[in-house]
């Protein structure tokens, strides 16, 4: 259920000011320390950011997809690592539980997820399994009372601080996705261990690491849905997650465009601001046009999802276009800033590195192309 317009406008205004006044001044420090300050995380908890997508009955804000997308656009106007701090609680780390959990599971976990007391994570990718997500090798064997879970997950966002993992594991020898089931696995179960966070190209402050499950005893009541429904749950989760990421891409692009305009109107070459040179104007025009298209795609698809329509293809198209778009905008921003864009002082090179990940996680651009083509053919055009 959507918030009333006045309440939602107040939320947007609060988030916008938080980004501009609290987060943006900390960007360089977060990059240097590769960590989000604890007091900022607490501020996020108090604002309700960890529970944006969780219904009010469980302590969340219960935003619609359209409302969530608009908030995500605002959050995209700063270093993506800030959003990632609570992003798994809002998206892939909680939505399996929201969509497929039973009443007992929701009551046990969602209030603490919404408050930020518990950090969640989504464990699908493995050392040998990335885009072919139906081929997971992590196995959960039922012994009559519990499941015994063994395997390794790789590049898991927020693994270093997660308290609860949604894990995709094979429960039968049925081929492909049919043999995959979903489980809620608390970090404190015996046999769960977390690897050393990876050194990454960008998005410093947001950590990814391996998660190893060594004969972990998982109670049968921790299974999400029926056996064999894990892949279906994962794909539903990713449909929503892709829209959220698309919205973040729009926000980052709009931030970059604003930075480019501010710089180009001040920087002078050949006796006038570079904003008056047509080739610079051409890059600004291309970036603005593409950002407007992406914004329209995201908001229209989010509204369609709220209306109960099938948006598998549209979500993939939004993720594909928006993630590729922000990469082009970032590249043009470096060009407009010239030498200043290549050094750290202006933060353009940082965002250039940060946005590269958007074309990879929650489904690479190539996977989105496959989904778009498959769904278009299925619909007959």
Describe this structure as you would to a colleague:
The longest helix is centred in the middle third of the chain and has 37 residues, at 230-266. Helix 1 packs parallel to helix 4, helix 4 packs across helix 8 (230-266) and helix 8 (230-266) packs antiparallel against helix 9 (278-306). The chain is 51% helix and 14% strand. It is α+β, with helices and mostly antiparallel strands. The chain is built from 13 helices and ten strands. The chain has a four-stranded mixed beta sheet with strand order 1-4-5-8. The two termini are 33 Å apart. The model has no long low-confidence stretch (mean pLDDT 96). The radius of gyration is 21 Å and the shape is globular.
With strands numbered from the N-terminus, the spatial order across the biggest sheet is 1-4-5-8
Mean pLDDT, all residues:
96
N-end to C-end Cα span: 33 Å
Which radius of gyration do the C-alpha atoms yield? 21 Å
| Uncertain residue segments | none
Instruction: Estimate the global geometry from the Cα principal axes.
Output: globular
Helix count equals 13
The helix content is 40-55%
- Count every beta strand, where a strand is a DSSP E run of 2 or more residues: 10
Structural class: alpha+beta
Order of helices and strands: HHHHHHHEEEEEEEEHEEHHHHH
Give the strand content: 5-15%
Main sheet: strands, sense, barrel: 4 strands, mixed
